[in-house]
Fold:
Amino acid sequence: MSLLVVGSIGIDTVETPQTRRENQLGGSAVYFAFAASFYTRVQLVGVIGKDFPSVHRTLLESREIDLQGLEVADGKTFRWVGRYHENMIDRDTLEVDLNVFGSFDPKVPPAFRATPYLFLANGAPQVQRKVLDQLEARPKFVAMDTMDLWIETARADLKELLKRVDALVINDSEARMLTGRHELLRAGLDILDLGPKTAIVKKGEHGALVVSRHGHFAVPGFPLEEVVDPTGAGDTFAGGICGYLAQTGDVSADNLRRAVAHGAVVASYTVQDFSLEALKRIQRSDLDARFEMLLDLVRIPK
Ligand code: AMP
Structure:
């Protein structure tokens, strides 16, 4: 089943304690779409400038990502520059040039308006809402991401939007900021009071805590000996989750557990190289093999 994503499409420059990589393909919607494309047909709504290298477009097309909703606007593509700390978790944003993304007015093509699965990747809540408003019917499953910037500057819009989604995928620090609660379970429960049926709280290399009224569960991060670049981990985690749900067409509580484990697996590949490099080298069978390893990792004999 098809899965629609809206979010940023950008050119990133990333500095880690070891190295610096300039002008790589990035953006929340790009990472999400690439990850989800291992599982299902992805439809992308976003904006790029005239400077967007055609090689990136070709890469997305090679994943059969439907680019009918990709607008090419006059101006430059969104750019982001980030620097990771020694711990490879915390990062500072050194520069953000919103460029054409700053005035993005998403237009959902008619062919996408009946999508059963929707992910609102990181972006202004007012813009995320415009996508939901253009759909013919409420999708079977709507998930969204957000960030500290919107929690601080657009809290009212964010709260309105949260009433209309099934799941919020959010970092631990942002869940704390949104709710004013330190304990993640408490923060997750407070998020449920804002509207979503499920709060998926990301804890970086430590995995994720999933909070819902039907019970909670935790998934570990897949252990790695080396992390090269954590950029896009959150978006590809969400892409694995939503991609798997859309592929299976099953949003039951048990299947959500499998989906979240797939999210953890895709994210673990993302961080093993810069940009989409590691994901470009793998196939669905690699994800399935690592999924089995993750199951084994958490197997506890009775
Ligand atoms: P993640 O590491 O999963 O949080 O996602 C990183 C991606 O988010 C990078 O590729 C950036 O281009 C993109 N990004 C950074 N800041 C923003 C922003 N304010 N709005 C939308 N996307 C952003």
